[in-house]
Amino acid sequence: MRYLTPDQSARIVQLLRQRRSVLREEIRQGLLKSGEAHHKDMAGMVSDAGDESVANMLEDLELADVDRDVLELRDVESALVRSGRPDFGGCADCGEAIGYARLVANPAASRCFACQERRERGYAHGGTPSL
Question: Taking the model in full, what pTM does it have?
Answer without folding.
Answer: 0.75
